[in-house]
Design goal:
By secondary structure, this protein is an alpha/beta fold. It has two domains: about 1-160, 3-Layer(aba) Sandwich (Leucine Aminopeptidase, subunit E, domain 1); about 180-490, Aminopeptidase, CATH 3.40.630.10. About 35% of the residues lie in helices and about 20% in strands. The strands form four sheets. It has an eight-stranded mixed β-sheet, with helices on both faces. Strands 1, 2, 3, 4, 5, 6 and 7 form a seven-stranded mixed β-sheet that branches. β12 and β13 (about 340) form a beta hairpin. It starts with a strand and ends with a helix.
């Protein structure tokens, strides 16, 4: 799908659909007014007749032919209520209406969808994200007769001359981010018999061949044994598919600039191990690698955009399976840091693979480290499916991530990391236990990780509630690629 910016009037481009907004009480926005003039007052007549009243969520398609094209009118609601939340809803309504049509091209009056307090770049980002999301289809394993392809291919974003430069910059950024989001979705949706540790390593190698600014390094089980990464190895012991640690080094900044390091949990399937999960909905445990998928997505977006900073993406990947060699409750493992862990529950495996990775990344002397993981069911209990949990050892980093989440609608909420929570990880037999009981499960998981991050600035993003959707719309969301990319853009 191709996005571009135009300063032509809405009626000029030769497209299938022209989209504009109508505010509540039948008030056409600027784009709709221009479109009405081009259609000889047709829109004004329909508004007068009450065919559309501008209520939020409403829409009306006016047929057209040839160069004239169809007109798509989107209800914006009351002007006084048109804030960022209302604008996102209007943009999502627009996106859904566009992709369900047989149209191949569209032009959109961008300013019609601009809420109070936001600039034109924000609207461009929102439009590209919403349309890309609505157009996404995962059809790799479906026959042709089972799929209805989206025909929409070219979208022009119509802006005023004074907004053109900002809009073009935002369009370039948003398109790259959409590419990264789709990469994360594809990896998350791929079935676990096709997506496993070594296949993720192959993906990293392929991306390194595609982008000159990217270098990929893969550590296999022998490398991990030599390294002393006992926690990663412990999680992968029960699987026929051995674990991998994957590093993707994106060099966009100066050689000596400290990189931002992203660490993604890549459990390509999680049975729970010996602490076996219930069978219901276990198929969704293929999404336990969505943290890793988001790292791949961010790295690809950085490469597409040519972001002028250094970023390292590290993926620590294993399958958590329950065979005769699998780690048991009661086992004690030695992590790469030298600290020992008593395994009380083998289903708390994500923090183990992350522990070794968080130790390993010290070699990069990072500016900041952010780990991303579908880590705890407790996060869903706390925040539902609306936002990710953010914790860490640096208030500025946490606030920067929260701000990036608000800007993109990919929101997070900060939880405390008070020293008192560390008491729950005490073990009679090792330096720590891998679980801290039911209370504050998301926080104690972050407390566990904090013991491996004392030498650098660090934040933890628990995406258990936002990484995928269940039910009829089941599928990976690509979150938190937008949040992370906004953070990196702000750093750049």
């Amino acid at each position: 799908m191709q996005f571009s910016v135009t300063t032509s009037t809405l009626d000029k481009p030769r497209v299938s659909i022209r989209a504009a907004g109508i505010a509540h009480k039948r008030k056409p926005a600027a784009g709709a007014s221009a479109l009405d003039a081009a259609r000889d007052g047709e829109i004004a007549a329909l508004l007068k007749a009450g065919e559309i009243d501008g209520e939020a969520g409403s829409r009306l398609l006016l047929p057209g032919s040839g160069a004239k094209g169809s007109a798509l009118l989107i209800g914006l609601g009351a002007k006084k209520d048109f804030d960022t939340r209302a604008a996102r809803k209007a943009v999502q309504t627009l996106a859904a209406a566009l992709v369900e049509r047989p149209a191949t091209s569209a032009v959109i009056a961008v300013a019609d969808f601009q809420p109070r307090g936001q600039d034109i770049a924000w609207v461009v980002h929102s439009l590209v994200a919403a349309i890309s999301d609505a157009a996404y289809r995962f059809t790799a394993f479906k026959g042709k007769e089972e799929t209805t392809p989206v025909k929409l291919d070219k979208i022009q974003l119509c802006v005023e001359h004074g907004d053109a430069a900002a809009a073009k910059k935002a369009c370039t950024e948003a398109t790259a981010i959409a590419t990264g989001v789709n990469r994360a979705k594809d990896l998350g949706n791929t079935p676990p018999n096709v997506c496993y540790p070594e296949s993720l390593a192959d993906t990293a190698r392929e991306m390194a061949k595609q982008y000159k600014s990217l270098k990929a390094t893969v550590l296999d089980e022998k490398d991990l044994e030599k390294l002393g990464a006992g926690a990663i190895l412990a999680v992968g012991k029960g699987s026929e598919r051995p674990p991998r640690l994957i590093a993707m080094e994106y060099s966009g900044g100066k050689k000596d600039d400290a990189p931002v390091v992203l660490v993604g949990k890549g459990i390509t399937f999680d049975t729970g191990g010996i602490s076996l999960k219930p069978g219901a909905e276990m198929d969704e445990m293929k999404y336990d690698m969505c943290g890793a998928a988001s790292v791949f997505g961010v790295i690809e977006a950085c490469c597409e955009l040519g972001l002028p900073i250094n970023v390292v993406g590290v993926v620590t990947s294993a399958e958590n399976m329950p065979d005769g060699r699998a780690t048991r409750p009661g086992d004690i493992v030695t992590t790469l840091s030298g600290q020992t862990v008593e395994i009380l529950n083998t289903d708390a495996e994500g923090r183990l693979v992350l522990a070794d990775a968080l130790t390993w990344v010290e070699r990069y002397k990072p500016k900041a480290v952010i780990d991303i993981a579908t880590l705890t069911g407790a996060c869903i209990i706390a925040l539902g499916h609306q936002g990710a949990a953010i914790l860490g050892n640096n208030e500025r980093l946490a606030k920067d991530l929260l701000s990036a989440g608000e800007a993109t609608g990919d929101r997070g909420w900060q939880l405390p990391l008070w020293p008192e929570y560390q008491e729950q990880l005490k073990s009679n037999f090792a330096d720590m236990a891998n679980i801290g009981g039911r209370p504050a499960g998301t926080i104690t998981a972050a407390c566990f990780l904090s013991r491996y991050t004392e030498d650098y600035t660090w934040a933890h993003v628990d995406i258990a509630g936002v990484a995928w959707k269940s039910g009829k719309e089941k599928g990976a969301t690509g979150r938190p690629v937008p949040m992370l990319m906004r953070y990196l853009l702000d750093q750049a």
